[in-house]
Structures are given as structure tokens and as C-alpha cells.
Amino acid sequence: MAKKFLCKDVGMDCPFEAQAETEEELMKQIAEHGKTAHGITEITPDLMEKVKAAIKDE
What we know:
45% helix
């Protein structure tokens, strides 16, 4: 079952969506997007919790 993430689900005003077969693959996409689009260089435990909560099964 594929995993899906929407940036707006963590409170960002951003249309970014990512999909992957595994949470690990998805987290790589999310981390890269956070770095390039939002300047996030460190994922805090609070942010990680929000991101994981926003990941949905497709």
C-alpha cells in the first residue's frame, strides 16, 4: 500500500504532495522538499511527529 504526504497537512501554505511505496522512501522526498522549498535543514522531534501523523495510506 502506497504512502502519501501533503505539505499543507502540517500547516504549510504549500501545494507539495509526495507518494512512495514505503515510509522510508517518502521521508526522503519530504526531507528534500523541506530543505529546498522551506529552508528546513534540521527536522526537530516535534516536526517529525507532525510529518509522521500526516502520512496517509493510499
